[in-house]
Amino acid sequence: MAILIDHNTRVIVQGITGREGQARTRLMLDYGTNVIGGVTPGKGGASVLGLPVFNSCKDAAASLGPIDLSVLFVPAAGIKEAALDAIDAGVKLLVLVADRVPVWDAMEIAKAAAAKGAKFVGPNTLGIASPGRAVAGMIGGRAESAREWFKPPLPGGTGVGIISRSGGMSSSTAYYCGQAGVRISSIVHIGGDAVLGLRIPDVAALFQDDPQTDAIVVFGEIGGSQEEELAELITSGKVTKPVIAYIGGKAATSGTRFSHAGAIIEGNRGTHAGKVAALRGAGATVVDAFGELPQAVAGVLRSNGSRSLMTDAERRAVWTTGVTRIEPNSVAVRGHDIAGLMGQTSFGATVYLILTGKLPDDKVGRLMDAILVSSIDHGATPPSCLAARTVASTGASLSASVAAGIMSINRHHGGAIEDAARYLGTLLAKARTAATSPGAFSAALDAVATDEVTRIKSSGDRISGFGHRIHTKDPRTARLFELAAVAGLSDQGATHIAAARAVERAFAAIGRPLPINVDGALGAILADLGMDPRVFNGIFMIARTPGLVAHVVEEQTREKPMRRIDPVNHAYDGPSGK
Ligand SMILES: CC(C)(COP(=O)(O)OP(=O)(O)OC[C@H]1O[C@@H](n2cnc3c(N)ncnc32)[C@H](O)[C@@H]1OP(=O)(O)O)[C@@H](O)C(=O)NCCC(=O)NCCS
After folding, report:
1. Is residue 129 domain-resident?
2. What's the 559 CA to ligand 1 centre distance in angstroms?
3. Residue 367 sits in the same domain as residue 423
């Protein structure tokens, strides 16, 4: 959990074809944000970074399904129209990046949002971020920097929530907290305008309810009453988590023009002294200088024994790993005690855990086992087996011989799993763009598959995941799909399995049946399990290793060294099959 955004949040970008829209979408994707498409009126049908562009949010929602969040890289003049489009399409959270949005437009957006139960952050916001998960807007810049600067909570652990009235200082607060060893659950730059969507008290209430947040850090400033309202929430017991704050603008004298439109002092309201007194009176920690804030946060966490504070070992480490934690008498894989997994969790389920960070349910665990079993060995003639046996015949060690086999698993051997997944993904994207409504998706997918088959027939292209040089009806495919159905994966709608079935049907319709092979089935299933395609070749290697070990040992115990291995002519003499 995190507030407002995490890696599952379905995000669109309005203004995706513009200068900032394109640049920031790339950065958001790099960080791991689940951006699923974009909107620019008049540019529907285009694509940016492989994502479909729609003319309106309504079109986007019709094709992509529900949208959780829209980040708007639309200039101030178009922001009202764009925001109302998103709210009308049912988007429940908007991030309004533009500055200089007319106050009247912001008020109309607020009214429309309230009527539809939507929320917005901004205008004039750098955005929101949940470290290690997702970012919406411009916080953190390059993904590598954001990863280095903002320290995420440990799996199942906690961090502090950061609320800032300043864009630049939201990143700086998170950065310096990180330097002090403080982990961060989420960062929210609420924006600097006079009329805002979520304000400090609203965000504090979200952090109060977030189990992953155990303290709230506020970068406030003079003007308005947000900090005073937070003090009231603390006094009334609605915010009970520790609050540590800095209030900017102490040096501003009467008549000073501050950069943010919301930083207006009217009479005695909104003064620096008033805010500090209100927060301290409520029990919050308020530092006098920004430079004291990180240590003050660390001090509060230390006195509470909070795991939001990194241990000395974690801080001293020059690099970190999220895969395995080794401590005296304890080994944990992705946060799960290994002794607890042993005897309880199958090898397939544990492979899924180590690759995704999530422990699957029993059905997905069984499917993972089946996937590994399906690829344990594919005969004595595939390149990996021939390579392993050839090297084994020279007297090489087991490790060198098996490594030779593994080294031959590449794009054209084993790589078809990843290729098939990516290929089926492109068919789904095309069908999403072509479908005029969610109900029209299946027909659009069939049409896309038919076009593809026609194209392949005329161009002579080969596609990964279909057909086999030996099997016309691959025995493993049907079983894998059966188990996938049991695990809850669907062969209908916008799934990779549905796309694979559509291609299979299209080939059958032209009288050239080309069934899905085991690589196609694995690619479709692994993609529908939500796994990262970059690990698919690795899953093939994990599965194939026992087969290679068996071949190497057999080669070295049965055959003469340096024999000439016939790549084709061999016979099986093992136990007869059941
Ligand atoms: C929002 C902002 C970043 C956009 O800048 P930009 O990317 O340079 O602007 P561009 O004109 O290149 O792109 C805007 C796109 O929005 C599109 N757009 C306009 N109205 C739209 C609407 N209703 N829906 C979706 N897109 C829309 C435009 O068509 C344009 O795309 P195009 O270039 O393909 O035609 C800029 O106006 C701004 O406000 N910058 C300051 C941000 C800031 O500092 N915020 C505070 C941080 S603390």
Report:
1. no
2. 70
3. yes
